[in-house]
Design goal:
Largest sheet: none
Number of helices: 5
Mean pLDDT: 83
Order of helices and strands: HHHHH
Number of strands: 0
Low-confidence stretches: none
Helix content: over 70%
């Protein structure tokens, strides 16, 4: 337990130091205290939930990958082709979109 508190304090100090070194200089943001740095760590844990824990993912790349594998495997070949075409139209026509 003591080691965990020391590690938490060390990580909080590192976050505070990095923030106070970078953010005010680069973005004209505020300087933060040690307790605010720990608050940022807690907030990021809540929002992203992946600080070295197992989280909501599996070993093959995360829950989103599992979701799409499952969804694609349930599609017929025609559905897969329509899906691929829609994705291609939406994401692969950067040259066409930039010229308009």
């Amino acid at each position: 337990m003591l080691l965990g508190l020391v590690c938490l304090a060390l990580v909080g100090f590192v976050v505070m130091s990095l923030w106070n070194w970078l953010v005010p200089e680069l973005f004209h943001g505020p300087v933060i205290t040690f307790w605010q740095a720990l608050g940022l760590l807690l907030l990021s844990k809540i929002l992203f939930s992946s600080f070295g824990g197992k989280g909501h993912s599996n070993h093959s790349g995360g829950s989103w990958k599992y979701y799409w594998r499952k969804k694609l495997s349930a599609m017929t070949p025609d559905d897969k082709e329509r899906f691929k075409q829609k994705m291609k139209e939406k994401w692969c026509n950067w040259d066409d979109k930039s010229q308009s």
